[in-house]
Amino acid sequence: METNQQLANLMSSAMEDASGLPAEAAEIQDASLNAVREEDADTLSGAQKSAVLLIALGVDAAGEVLRRLDDHEVEQISIEIARLRNVSSEVVESVLVEYHDMAIAQDYIAQGGMNYAREALVEALGADRAEEVLMRVEASMEVSAFHLLQTVETEQLSGYLRKEHPQTAALILSHLNSMKAGDIINRFDNDLQTEILYRLATMNKTSPDLLSDIESVIRQQLGSVFGAELSSSGGAEKVADILNGVNRNTEKQILGTIEDRDPELADSIKRLMFVFEDLANVHDRDLQRLLTETDQRDLVMALKASPDELKDKILDNVSQRVADGIREDLELMGPVRVGDVEDAQRAIIETAQRLEDEDEIVLARSAEEMIE
Prior knowledge:
Blueprint: H1 2-19, H2 23-37, H3 46-57, H4 59-66, H5 71-83, H6 89-125, H7 127-141, H8 145-148, H9 154-162, H10 166-174, H11 178-185, H12 190-201, H13 208-222, H14 236-243, H15 248-261, H16 263-273, H17 284-292, H18 296-303, H19 308-315, H20 320-332, H21 338-357
Helix pairs in contact: 1-3, 1-4, 3-5, 3-6, 6-7, 9-11, 10-12, 11-14, 12-14, 12-15, 14-16, 15-16, 18-20, 18-21
């Protein structure tokens, strides 16, 4: 019974998301019945995905789910069921996986909130797939127009933002999942990339009135949805998150241009993009090159508060004599100031970023970037 109700809730959310797409999206959705035969489930509307799911579940289970939907939703899904023809096994599997992942995500959120859900999903599904699932969940849980934009196809949203003022585009990107925002930024030319991200990095708190006005415009584009209280989430940290999702050439070009305009801001973004703990993801060869440029006193101080995984990684990439010396220094070291540890870590990261700028090493931001 609970499973049937959960499926009904997911279907309702999916159809609400689909109803908010721009007019251009409606044309894509109308054409998506043909896309089913081309084994591309991404172009299906929420109602069409619900139809595919109910067909896969069978008559008895489908009836139990439909009883939990309102009349309008039942009508929408019934129409799509009647229109569907020759649905491929690949599309059916894709839809089943999407609903399954959404159901798991909502269970995790109910158990421990969004942060707990993110950690659990990354463990279960991997980082990229977990973020995709959470984007859908966030969009289904939120009613603000900004969050509804999560469900708009990336190419369409890129075209929409390309026509907007850079300040407006920056504000909208600040409310998107960083992975989606990074994908959008990758589609802009260099000048627009830099202008938008510079404005995003220098963005302060935005007045509620301005946010309300912008959301009203977005709602006119997306359709009628209920508003919600909003807050600004721009700044250097958001830009760092977005740049971590773009390709390396784009990252260097944007950071270079920002540095020309505001060196301190560029430094702030760089520090947020790569932190000391990320050294655990750096290839052994690159880490060894970095350690040859690192003062051992800074290294010992930096490792004082580091996780064991990172300590082991670093000690495995120095000579046995140096490793023994570092272990002894750590054992003998008494309490130290947090500021001293942070200064030592910052010095090592600055060296790492200098070596990367000189194409001496590559700094992987995550384990998934590493290729053996």
